[in-house]
Design goal:
The structure is a single chain. Helix 2 (58-68) crosses helix 3 (83-96) and helix 5 (186-195) packs across helix 6. The chain contains seven helices and twelve strands. The chain has helices at residues 16-25, 58-68, 83-96, 122-131, 186-195, 213-221, 245-263, and strands at 7-12, 31-37, 50-53, 71-76, 100-103, 115-119, 136-140, 156-161, 175-179, 200-204, 224-228, 240-242. The chain is elongated. With 264 residues, it is α/β, with parallel strands linked by helices. Bound molecules: NADP nicotinamide-adenine-dinucleotide phosphate.
């Protein structure tokens, strides 16, 4: 894949922003873009450029991949809650001296019109549902972390997921799944909440624009949101980080100039 003055850029994806970045980076001269997806989504959209799918096999596997594929630059545009891969790529690129930038969405901020109950994790979110005696919950935290909610037998859960969980058969029948992929519109979310007589939303504070419509809908309907705080990434200050896609593109341009100079 690599030829003279062509550099390989690994883009860790799984987010809408990573697709946008691939689109915007592909026209750049001197670059091969390889988007990496974990493989959680059954039929993912194909990004611009190359694609690879599946875990690397921990830090060692990641190092091997970076070496074997002569990766020159890495962009981490994974979801704010994907903390394991963020740590792995940081360690692997540091060891191999490969430049890395993290695109980090800004977390959502509550406005005065919002009624957020902010919690640290999913267990605490489940406890808040019991404490406030909520009865009809719109659960939008993905399909991996349903266990803390599984003891709430008298609660109706509308669970929105991209793909049905593998252990679907074991999940209590008060969990009703809705398979859908954003972005969603505010009015669409209002209709969904009203049709299902939802009295609370449980959400991760994922930030970004793509799933914000449910928060706007809750605001319009004066519904509370149990909001799981974005992971405190203590390591983040060690990353070169930007909160804008333009910031990533500027960084890439600078890195290409450096790589070209080094290769002359
Ligand atoms: P995670 O907990 O940080 O990572 C778990 C493992 O999945 C990693 O150790 C790695 O396996 C593999 N992995 C994760 N992202 C990968 C990628 N882009 N390419 C190749 N392997 C990857 O991640 P997660 O929370 O399960 O998220 C998985 C993917 O879904 C990420 O790409 C993320 O951007 C996307 N996503 C996550 C969320 C969320 O709420 N967590 C929401 C929307 C999208 P190995 O150790 O084998 O390398």
């Amino acid at each position: 894949m690599n030829s003279a003055k062509y550099f390989n850029l690994l883009l860790l994806g799984g987010t809408a922003e990573a697709y946008d970045l691939a689109d915007r980076l592909c026209p750049f001269d001197h670059l091969n873009i390889i988007t990496s997806l974990a493989g959680r989504t059954k039929h993912p959209k194909h990004p611009s450029g190359y694609i690879r799918i599946g875990g690397f096999g921990g830090i060692a596997g990641l190092e091997q991949y970076l070496n074997h594929n002569k990766v020159n630059l890495v962009i981490d545009a994974t979801h704010p809650f994907a903390t394991q891969i963020q740590l792995h790529i940081k360690i692997a690129t540091q060891k191999l001296h490969i430049p890395l930038i993290r695109y980090q969405r800004q977390a959502w901020q509550a406005s005065l019109a919002d009624q957020w109950i902010i919690v640290d994790d999913y267990q605490a979110a489940a406890e808040q549902l019991i404490l406030h005696k909520f009865k009809r919950v719109f659960l939008t935290i993905g399909s991996k972390n349903l266990k803390p909610f599984s003891n709430l037998k008298n609660v109706f859960f509308l669970v929105r997921v991209v793909n049905m969980p593998d252990n679907y058969a074991e999940i209590p029948n008060n969990f009703h799944f809705l398979c859908a992929k954003g972005p969603f519109q505010r009015q669409q979310e209002i209709d969904l909440l009203q049709t299902n007589k939802i009295d609370v939303i449980v959400s991760k504070n994922s930030g970004g624009i793509y799933t914000f419509a449910k928060i706007e809908a809750a605001r319009s309907l004066h519904l509370p949101v149990v909001m799981v705080r974005s992971p405190d990434n203590d390591q983040l200050h060690l990353f070169q980080t930007t909160t804008t896609l333009d910031g990533v593109l500027d960084w890439v341009k600078k890195q290409i100039t450096i790589l070209i100079k080094k290769s002359i």
